[in-house]
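Why do we bother with a discrete structure alphabet at all? Because it lets us treat a fold like text: something you can write down, compare, and reason about line by line. To make this less abstract, here is a complete entry for Response regulator. Read it the way you would read a sentence in a foreign language you are learning: slowly, and without expecting to understand everything at once.
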Amino acid sequence: MAMLVGVRILVVEDEALVALMVEDALRDAGAEVLCAYTVEEALRLLGGEEGAGLDAAVLDLSLAGEGAAPVAEALRKRGIPFLIATGYGDAQQNAAGGATAGAPVLCKPFEPEALVATIATLVAPDRQPLRTGT
């Protein structure tokens, strides 16, 4: 499942086990992964050399009780597409406001395959999913 070879992805997630699962799934798909566990760390990565050349991001909306809207806004300003990974559903995304409008949402728990497929669509929106059998 090397759908993401050459793709650089920022994962912003404060739950260690979830972050590890997301990171493993993306690496297994061939992606290079950077992780941030707080809003401050994510903004620092985005503002530094490490954040250059990012292709996409996975963003949890609640990071240790802090809203992730500033990270979503920074991603939008840089033109980096992102998806929302949340266990709280639409209410939390609505609370984040316009910063997350239009971003795809994966509700936790989600399958690694769904994560990889959604990221693949974000980085190559005109790409059609592979079909098997006819």
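What the structure line is telling us, in plain words: Strands lie at 8-12, 32-36, 56-59, 62-63, 66-67, 82-86, 105-107. The first helix runs from residue 16 to 28.
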